[in-house]
Amino acid sequence: MIDAVIRVENLGKKYVLSHDSPERYIALRDEISRRLKAAVDGIRTIGRQSERADKTRKEDYWALQDFSFEVPRGQRLGIIGRNGAGKSTLLKLLSRITEPTTGRITLRGRVASLLEVGTGFHPELTGRENIFLNAAILGMSRAEVRRKFDEIVAFSEVERFLDTPVKHYSSGMYVRLAFAVAAHLEPEILIVDEVLAVGDIQFQRKCFGKMEEVGREGRTILFVSHNLTAVRAMCNRVLLIEEGKLVSYGEPAATIARYVEAPLGNLLVREWIDAANAPQNAAARLVKVAVRGAGGDPSTHLSTDTGWEIQIVYSVKQDGAFVGLTMILYDGENNCVFSSINNREPEWYGKGMPSGFYKSTCRVPSNLMNNGWFSLTVNLFGKNFEEGRMVKDVLRFEILDGPALRGDYHGGWGGVVRPDLVWTTVRVSGEGA
Amino acid sequence: MKKGEVHATIYPTRLRSIDGAFYESSRMIDAAQCELIIEAGKTEAQYWKDLWHYRELFAFLAWRDIAVRYKQTVIGIAWAVVRPLLTMVVFTVIFGKLAKLPSGGVPYAVLVFSAMLPWQFFSSAVSEGSNSLIGNANLISKVYFPRVIVPVSSVIVSFVDTLVSTSILIALMIYYRIVPGWNILFLPLFSILAFAAAMGVCLWLAALNVRYRDFRYVVPFLVQFGLYISPVGFSSSVVPERWRLLYSLNPMVGVIDGFRWSLLSGMSSINLPGLAISSSLVLFLLVTGLWYFRKTERTFADVI
């Protein structure tokens, strides 16, 4: 391909995981005490060093490996994959936030990356001031901003509040202003990470329009999203990443189908044995999340015509703690199907809970979900819905096709849900047509 | 997502551009002109080029911090004035009046304040600068720019604060009727030396702070300790002659002596070998600081 604006060759990124601390950074005191200890141990056990040589357990983890692909000019490339597959790492490498461990990337043209809306916005500064600041952070020159200032303001729809500190903005206004700045970058390559999932629908549509335009002008767009509907609408090529490897790169329909139809398999139980690494907030810590057939039946097959339940086991850290739970179900294309909060259980909810282990069960009736793959997100929250700890993709499971509502029909069944709805027919008149 | 709310996003199934042609396509840069190759550990030349490209960001980050500081607190300016003023009063009373240290004919308050300026700059630059990377963690993990911009711009902010408190010195000098001589021409030179000293220490500490998060507890101690071993409350002439060279191993000794010498011409002498030692130490700190910063910079985004 001659006109490739992005060429990636054998790209790899390695992280070193330390099992001793969940934190990514080190404390100097730990480092010093470790070295002292190692020195003392070394003296004491000369000749037997190898035995305890590597007490701090470290492990290499390849977030991305053997990546090679090319992106021609003007392509709108969607990047999909599960959480932790390596999408963000790829974007960070392409936008030079972090350096690759192996391989090389060749970029031809100015790159602008939007991994977040409003990076560097300061709440105390006014809208006008933040436009200039944010633009400088994204690599725009002052002259360029001045030239496009009116356009940016018009696009953001916040003219009236331009001289108000952005801390007084609503979240919608904030996002609009931030996106307006980003949209007026004129890069040859634009890298966007799911930032469009914010703002109202009207504005989202405007953003999509803008991105489409950018694409039409021969600029190249890389778009990472969990929302397959958006990817399908936006992109003309899709790249699928699974566990750090490039699995598929091609037509959107085929690649998305591959992603949807070949999940990694059922993940029916998730348990956190190590308390330090378990998802938690100040009040409680998750111990186990599981999906079971109705009545706790541990069979691995869930089907459309049997009910099922989600069990959440958690430990309340101290007496009187407030624990709130939300479960959110997503379908295979990451559309939200429903969510449910445990706030109508007056016996416990809103009352201080004594410390100890608890199991909360949420039952989903039979004949509600259609068949297909689903994933579950759990949110642990505190008083006033604050201190939320969202755990995405805790479970992943397939609901199989059951015969209950099929009658004599054996074909494909559309929809996310398959509710048991009642049909009634009466004869209104005896006269034939 | 805040407050446990659930978001269900609806995407338009059919796309259309609502607001017509927005881009005037004014500038399609010839792509071949700016080909960029990203490889492990091969970005040195590119780095300095980027630094030039992002030069405006320097000014913007510094401007942001200054604007925010003077906006947030009504006493923003007062803060820059009151702090050194009070320290000056205390030092004058303790060292000048109680300990009766020699001042070489200069009013003790002026002697102290001519040293307070560079010291205040150095100490605030070091304390702010060493935290600057952590404070901008969000920026560092989301966008690319040469990271060295962050500590440098925080040093610039401290410099601006110092300029504000220079007004006190001017007032003091008018009050005591002290007219600086030709030596004042060297003041910019010593300001650069002060800047280099602050920069060198900042680069080291900022980078170490990212890696060892408890390093920030060390910094206030260093700064406080530095105040006592630097000739702020007293003239460095009280240090016995045979210890002078050793004393000059503190890089701020050269800077402070230089400030006094250029501001209070004739009333304060300068120790040239000592200045040479201080200056070369500053240079050493700056070069190694830059080296260490560049070495660890590539992992900032992974660690921060």
What would you note in describing this structure?
The complex is a heterodimer of chains A (433) and B (304). Chain A is of the alpha/beta class and 433 residues long. Chain A folds into two domains: 62-261, P-loop containing nucleotide triphosphate hydrolases (Rossmann fold); 269-400, Coagulation Factor XIII, Chain A, domain 1 (Distorted Sandwich). Chain A contains eight helices and 18 strands. In chain A, the strands form four sheets. Chain A has a six-stranded mixed sheet, sandwiched between helices. By secondary structure, chain B is mainly alpha-helical. Chain B has one domain (42-303). In chain B, helix 4 (108-135) packs antiparallel against helix 6, helix 4 packs parallel to helix 7 (187-211) and helix 7 packs antiparallel against helix 10. The two termini of chain B are 22 Å apart. Classes of the chains: A alpha/beta (433), B mainly alpha (304). Strand 4 of chain A pairs antiparallel with strand 1 (35-39) of chain B.
SSE order and pairing:
The complex is a heterodimer of chains A (about 425) and B (about 300).
Chain A: E1 4-18, H1 28-44, E2 58-72, E3 76-81, H2 87-94, E4 102-108, E5 111-114, H3 127-137, H4 142-156, H5 171-183, E6 189-193, H6 201-216, E7 220-224, H7 228-234, E8 237-242, E9 245-250, H8 252-261, E10 269-271, E11 284-293, E12 302-303, E13 308-316, E14 324-331, E15 336-341, E16 356-364, E17 372-381, E18 389-400
Helix pairs in contact in A: 3-4, 3-5, 4-5
Chain B: E1 35-39, H1 44-53, H2 55-72, H3 76-98, H4 108-135, H5 137-142, H6 149-175, H7 187-211, H8 218-229, H9 244-247, H10 251-263, H11 272-297, H12 300-303
Helix pairs in contact in B: 2-6, 3-4, 3-6, 4-6, 4-7, 4-8, 4-10, 6-7, 7-10, 7-11, 10-11
